[in-house]
Amino acid sequence: KIVQTNPVLEAWGNAKTVRNDNSSRFGKFIRIHFNSSGKLSGADMVVYLLEKSRLTYQQPLERCYHAFYNLMSDQVPDLKEKCLLTNDIKDYWFVSQGKLTVPSIDDREDMQ
After folding, report:
1. Burial degree of 15 (CB within 10 A; 0-12, 13-18, 19+)
2. How far is CA 92 from CA 23, 68, 112, in A?
3. Distance of CA 9 to CAs 24, 46, 60, Å?
4. pTM, two decimal places
5. What's the pLDDT score for residue 80?
């Protein structure tokens, strides 16, 4: 179950760069906790080196973190309405300065 969270976490930390369509912009360390009988009792994650500048600026051939485009993909009915989002990603300057779509990434599929 811990590993299954990885796609969700990567959506928030991966972005398109000039060199790579799905580049990790952060590091993470997953610590798994076991109880005295050796059974999994929990986990925590330490995230570091988050590239914060990508949130406010992208070069023309880059794209902000994938999660923003996943949310706008219409995969989840009524999600944009519930989040008070418009239907046009260009209404959101901070995520529409660079590439809006990437041929190798399916935002709808990733939102599932």
Report:
1. buried
2. 22, 10, 23
3. 10, 12, 25
4. 0.67
5. 94
How far apart (Å, rounded) are the C-alpha atoms in residues 28 and 19? Answer: 21
Helix H or strand E segment including 43: strand 40-48
Position 91: which residue type? D
Structure tokens at 16: 């398109």
Q: Which two tokens stand for residue 58?
A: 């992208």
CA dihedral 34, 29, 56, 107 (to 10 degrees): -70
d(CA 25, CA 50): 6
**Strand duo 27-34 + 40-48: pairing:** antiparallel
- Cα distances from 12 to residues 4, 37, 39, 40, 71, in angstroms, run 15, 34, 29, 26, 11
pLDDT in tens, 55-89: 788 889 988 888 889 999 999 999 999 999 999 99
